[in-house]
Amino acid sequence: MFELRGAREEERDQIAKIWHTSASLPDVGPPQMPSYEVLRARVDEELASGWSVTVAVAGGEIAGFVALRPAENYLAELFVSPSHLGCGLGKRLLDHAKSVMQDGFTLFTTTKNARARRFYEREGLTLERESLHPRAGHPITYYCWNGG
What we know:
Layout: E1 3-6, H1 12-23, H2 36-48, E2 52-58, E3 61-69, E4 74-80, H3 89-100, E5 105-110, H4 114-122, E6 126-132, E7 139-145
Antiparallel strand pairs: 1-2, 2-3, 3-4, 5-7, 6-7
Helix pairs in contact: 1-2
C-alpha cells in the first residue's frame, strides 16, 4: 500500500535518487544522462521556482514522485522507482496530477520511452506533438490531458 503526501525538505536526496535511477533505465532519460549530483541540484532549483512535489511512500521509503507546476498546467516529472514499476503507483501519481490540475495539463516524455507512452495513452492522455528536448536536444513527445 502506498501513501501519497507532500514531499518534505529532508527527502530531496531521495527524490533525486529515484529521478536519477529511473531516468537511467534504457530509453527513459536523455542519451547523455545527467549525474545524480546535477539532478540533486535541479531538485532544489525547481522547488525554489515553483515545483509542487507529491511523493508515494511504501514501507517508510519513497517509491515514486510527481512534480507539478499547477499555475502552468504542467506535469514536470513523474518517476517510479524501478523496484515498484508495474504495481499501479504511476497511475496513482498521475491520478493525483489530474485531481490537482482538473482543467488539464501537458507533459513530455522521451520519444523512445515506449513504456511511458503506452501508459499515458492508456490513461487518457492525447499525443500532442513531437519536438526536441529543451535542454538535451533528444526527441521528445508531448502529451496533454484535457481535464474531466
